[in-house]
Write a structure and sequence with these properties.
Helix content: 55-70%
Mean pLDDT: 87
Distance between the termini: 45 Å
Number of domains: 1
Strand order of the largest sheet: 1-2
Low-confidence stretches: none
Radius of gyration: 19 Å
Order of helices and strands: HHHHEEHHHHHHH
Length: 295
């Protein structure tokens, strides 16, 4: 059918793969944003800078300490998560009783500072990060060539996304977190350390951004601006899925990545704006988002 439209199957499948890979990053990053907003009511505009920091931590571990990809997949998100905890304790915790705008402005300023520091030290040219040898090469599927590392990114993102959803929606810890956002005083009266839950939530959300940065390092060049443009798209994904909706962030991230890939095939000129067009339509029809709850 696609050959009748003048579109080779290899081109279509290649763009679908690219869209699925982009959707994997959209899903993981928007999941981190949804966790932070849904449980802390903080609009974390520093998420793109923390994603970039995760990629840089992996690069520094490899080039300065000789620590390879697999340990970095754990150490880099851990380092970014600890940095996020420091930010939450020293700055964000003072803004919980204020309007959302204050948190947005603070995290936006933090993003500019973090990006500026890395740009000042490393410049704006991309730094290479090699694919681990275990994931080098690919498989010929007949209709397309599937690189092993791209397949790993998709699988890893799916595992992390749905593991996070299960933890928050189906475990006792997740129940405590959700209850703390509804009535923190009552949960605290039952002996639950609510401030600790909040700080760990922010640390976990930022660690997800660091994890996405490590996954992205071998695909994209590691540079200080790698999260600046992506964060706008990720915010659109979160708005479409529903602010604070965990499942909405996951499903919408993958869905919009695939739609973006298909748009590159059928209407390349619109691929850079299709997500924002969908966001405008969703906000007109269902302002709370596809999976969000009406206020």
């Amino acid at each position: 059918m696609f050959e009748l439209l003048g579109i080779p199957p290899q081109v279509l499948m290649g763009q679908l793969l690219l869209g699925l890979i982009n959707g994997s990053f959209y899903a993981v990053l928007s999941l981190g944003l949804a966790v932070i907003f849904g449980l802390l009511n903080v609009i974390n505009f520093a998420h793109g800078a923390l994603y970039m920091a995760g990629a840089f931590v992996a690069w520094m571990l490899l080039n300065y300490l000789g620590v390879g990809y697999w340990p970095a997949l754990i150490l880099a998100p851990l380092a970014v998560g600890i940095f996020g905890i420091v930010l939450e304790r020293t700055m964000l915790s003072r803004l919980y009783h204020l309007d959302h705008l204050y948190g947005l402005l603070l995290t936006f300023g933090l993003a500019l500072i973090i990006q500026g520091l890395f740009r000042n030290y490393y410049g704006i040219s991309g730094l290479p990060y090699r694919i681990p040898s275990a994931l080098a090469g690919g498989h010929n599927l007949g209709f397309m060539f599937l690189p092993n590392y791209r397949a790993w990114v998709i699988v890893a993102s799916i595992i992390v996304c749905f593991g996070t959803w299960f933890m928050i929606e189906k475990t006792r810890l997740g129940a405590y977190l959700r209850a703390a956002t509804e009535n923190s005083a009552l949960v605290n009266a039952f002996g639950v350390n609510v401030p600790l839950l909040l700080v760990l939530t922010y640390g976990f959300g930022t660690a997800l951004a660091g994890f996405a940065g490590v996954l992205a390092a071998p695909i994209y060049s590691v540079n200080p601006n790698m999260g600046a443009d992506l964060i706008i798209i990720v915010f659109a994904v979160v708005v479409i899925g529903g602010m604070g909706s965990i499942m909405g962030a996951i499903v919408t991230g993958y869905m919009l990545g695939i739609i973006e890939g298909l748009t590159r095939v059928f209407y390349p000129e619109g691929s850079s704006v299709v997500i924002f067009v969908i966001m405008a339509i969703v906000l007109l029809i269902k302002p709370e988002g596809l999976f969000g709850r009406a206020a």
